[in-house]
Write the structure tokens for this entry.
Amino acid sequence: MMWRTHALLGVSALWLLAPVPGALTPGNVGPLCALAAFGALLPDLDAEESKVKSLGIMGIRPFMPVARTAFRTFGHRGLLHSPLGLLMFAAVCAGVGLVWGALPGAVLWLGYASHLAGDACTRSGIPSWPNRSGRRIHLLPVRFRLVTGSLAEDALLPLLALPVALLLLSFLPS
């Protein structure tokens, strides 16, 4: 899936926190959306070309060395796209939780998990790491699996934008 689809999936995952009292508020929903979208881009650190790899501040791209190492070591849709990668990222999110609180850590993890769920809906799926058997994890039957960058993925964008818009609109002051 393309970065924009992953970002919308990540922000849409915030709906899972809506039933938790006080988790989403008018004051934090914007930053949490940004954090969820960022978390949703992180698994693509292992891609040769990715949006998260190119993020930078004042010409500095802090994710470039990590991205190069991950790509050379695992290739795209390797460890970072696997359930084991998600479990390892949970440890990173626990550290974030210790520094900034449980909610930011949980939101980062939800974004990351949404990325894997999205890629598991594509034809190539995600690896069941360790990938000795070559088996892949798919969440959809064969005929419904998406091709990255296809018209089907483009058609999915408005459907993903709707829950994001509803989430943001639900926190506008009345």
